[in-house]
Amino acid sequence: MMKFVTRRIFALLALYICILFGIFALQFTSSDAFSVSMGVLRASGSMETDDGQTRPSLPLHIVTEGLDFFLDSQNPAVGYVSDKKGNPLKLVGFTQGNSSFDLSFSDGVSVSFSSERRGDSDIVSVSAKMPEKYQKVALPYKITRSARLEKADSLTLVTSGKKQYSFSGATIDSATGAGVRLLSIKRSAPLVTYRTWLPVKGLSLDDLASVPGSSDADYSSAVSSFAAKALVSFKESIAAGKFTEPLVAAYVAEMGRIGMYQAAIESVPESWRSGSAHSWLTSPFFGSLERTWPGLVSKEREDRSAISRKLSENNPAAFEYPSLIPYLVDRGSGILLKDVARLASTLDVSTLTARQAAGILEAMNDFARYAPEQENTLRALGDSCERKIKSSLFFAGKALYVSDDGKSVDSAASLEIADVLIRYGGESDASWRQVGHLLAVGILSLADERGAVPARLQFAVTDGSSEKTGVVPDGSETIAASASYPTAVTDNTWYPHVVSLSLSAKPGVWAWTSAQSLKVTEGADGVVKITARFPQGMTHYLVVRGIEPFHRILIYGMDFRTDPRFETYNSSGYRYNEETKTLYLKMRHKTEYEDVVIYQGKAAESAPAPASESQPAAESAPASAN
Questions:
Q1: How far apart are CA 276 and CA 298, in angstroms?
Q2: Domain shared by 232 and 134, yes or no
Q3: Do both 358 and 466 map to the same domain?
Q4: Are residues 218 and 165 in the same domain?
Q5: Do residue 102 and residue 137 come from a single domain?
Q6: Phi, psi of 593 (to 5 degrees)
Q7: Among the four residues 319, 422, 468, 505, which has the most C-beta atoms within 10 Å?
Q8: Do residue 454 and residue 555 come from a single domain?
Q9: The 3-state secondary structure of 42-53, one letter per residue
Q10: Spatial contact of 79 and 130, defined as CB atoms under 8 Å apart
């Protein structure tokens, strides 16, 4: 009896061992469990091998913030031929792509899940492809145990942790008894997004069009009023012999804007014009190009170093540099564009100032223009930066201001933001152009009779209320008209400025000029034509960087030779530094539009030689040919 019991125990033990080995064999030979993540998406399931083919087995789960998309034997995906007639779809494939989870179903239906981060918002996209016989495809999902549904106006939101999410392009359907819901993706609208819900803060931009100060005419009037006040102070300072570079630059530029350029030039004493007091800033007016140019080169070296340091430190203050992207391209710092892209992908948008957010919007558009071959990671920040600026806008009285803390206003930063938004609105939503107008008008309207504006402002509020009734100066510090002029009167090309020529020529070609317009075109065989616009009979000075060595140059359609004294003659002329590829030009306009034609490279043996120095044109440099 005892032997029988013992044999029975061993037999049962052997049976159980066989069963366990069978289970393990089935699990690890015919089915492979997997769990993979992509952004905020996590997919889990198993793959089974049958007849040499590997296919997914049910259940399959794709989970994101607060949602669990799943497929099992009781809850398949369904393709609907009509609103009420649906066909269950069999899952036949699951793959992980570079940026998506892709599900393949019977009947040629496929569904893709992808995840991305845009600034402060996580976005899950669900897209479907289906044959014409189906109107829509429905996927089952549940609200996870850690999430709950909440109402916000007409929206139903999914709250998961401290964040909330909402569907775009679909609604949250009512649940069955088992808590199962359906996500319907229509063939006519095959993309649904599920994203972080951020409550709208700040002003409604759609209402700004009717606000006084938002129109082009209102903005132009405010700029003209400021410029008129500024010119009064400029003239007084010039008459009193109080010369500074910014003041002289703004004075000559404003006089040029009102048609009195030559009078402005002549009102500046020759001793100052030809002396060491003036630098690269006013060189487009007074020359001394070769002497003053190293000063700008030194400044730019410092600027590039500061930008590089900020980018390496992941400091968003790098975006406060005006026209950051064309600046880096023009100065041969294209490698820093990768640092810009890297910084954009790691930024915490919640830490940005309004000025930095505006700089990112500017860089976002410029990146697409100047580096189209590179991935523009800045685009992912666009919506978040707009929200940041929008939440920083405040009406105080009848004027609009931008403030990071809701208490004070930085006037200089406000004018810079206004300038960016005016241009940004011209390329995207026109409402941002109106915001820019209002911000500029609000600051410029505070200018005193000499064009000075308070450096900082404090919001005035009603006693016992948070309503902002206006602004008052926060201290006695003011910004002189000459300092704010470049950001207040931004469309005045008379003011010395940089012109990027990289898009029409090549990266690294740019100019320092006060010309009304400057264009460059490249023809065959390395022929470059620079066209400058300036009033007929007047003279300006121009520096062009990035010009390759050349063997011939034409001005007025005539051959010219280099001459170290080129600025002293009553004619156009040039000097060229081959080492730095810098062309210094004096442009005395016989016509409004003058061309400088440059033949780059070495001269061909059959090419005609330039006219000799013994044949000077009347009123031109001895080294110039007629």
A1: 17
A2: no
A3: yes
A4: no
A5: yes
A6: -105, 120
A7: 319
A8: no
A9: EEEEEEEEECCE
A10: yes
As separate numbers, helices (DSSP H) first and strands (DSSP E) second, the chain gives 14, 33
603's tokens: 């001269």
What whole-number distance in Å separates Cα of residue 262 and Cα of residue 270?
13
Q: Strands, DSSP E only, in 341-492?
A: 393-396, 399-402, 408-410, 453-454, 456-461, 468-473, 478-479
The answer to the question of residue 332 being in a domain is no
> Quick one: 386 and 427 in the same domain?
yes
Per-10-residue mean pLDDT of the chain, 626 residues long, equals 55 57 47 86 90 86 94 94 92 90 95 86 91 94 91 80 81 78 90 81 74 93 97 95 94 96 94 88 95 95 95 95 94 87 87 96 94 89 91 90 94 97 90 95 96 94 76 92 97 96 91 96 88 96 95 94 90 94 96 95 60 37 38
| Number of separate domains in the chain | 4
Tell whether omega for the bond before 59 is within 30 degrees of 0, i.e. cis: yes
In a domain, residue 326? The reply is no
d(Cα 160, Cα 150) in Å, to the nearest integer?
11
Among 173, 200, 174, 161, smallest CA distance to 40 is for: 161
Please check whether residues 9 and 49 belong to one and the same domain: no
CA distance between the termini of the chain: 131
Q: Kindly tell me the burial class for residue 555, based on how many C-beta atoms sit within 10 Å of its own C-beta (0-12, 13-18, 19 or more).
A: buried
Residue 597 contacts residue 529 (beta carbons within 8 Å): yes
Q: 323 lies in a domain?
A: no
DSSP single-letter state for residue 294: H
Tokens 């002549």 identify what position? 266
Structure tokens at 33: 């469990």
In a domain, 617, yes or no: no
Pick from 326, 243, 304: nearest CA to 278: 243
Contact (CB, 8 A) for 574 and 584: yes
Regarding whether 287 and 433 lie in a shared domain, the answer is yes
- The domain boundary, picked from 488, 521, 543, lies at 488
Cβ(105)–Cβ(175) under 8 Å? no
